[in-house]
Specification:
Number of strands: 5
Strand order of the largest sheet: 1-4-5
Distance between the termini: 23 Å
Shape: elongated
Radius of gyration: 16 Å
Structural class: mainly beta
Number of helices: 0
Largest sheet: 3 strands, antiparallel
Order of helices and strands: EEEEE
Number of domains: 1
């Protein structure tokens, strides 16, 4: 849907919200958590903002992590996210 076409119905009535799109309880309540370090007390929590896309024609909805977010680069070192191996694909 990032290209402006719905993957389900092929409509071009796509709406985008680059700043979470929901009414947040706090500034980052709907972000993607990225943990740095191991163990409860040693962890640092970073948040990656989410971008939302919705099709007005059929209601299909997608969410993507914002690749423009400065914390996006921390993903490959995160303790709570792991890259899929070839066997898992």
């Amino acid at each position: 849907m990032k290209n402006g076409t719905c993957l389900k119905c092929s409509s071009s009535e796509i709406y985008h919200s680059p700043e979470n799109g929901f009414y947040p309880a706090s500034m980052h309540s709907y972000g993607m958590r990225v943990m740095e370090g191991e163990g409860f007390w040693e962890e640092k929590v970073h948040v990656i903002n989410l971008e939302h896309y919705v099709c007005r024609a059929c209601g299909f909805f997608e969410t993507y992590a914002s690749t423009n977010d400065p914390n996006f680069g921390l993903l490959e070192k995160a303790s709570n996210w792991k890259k899929l191996s070839e066997e898992q694909k």
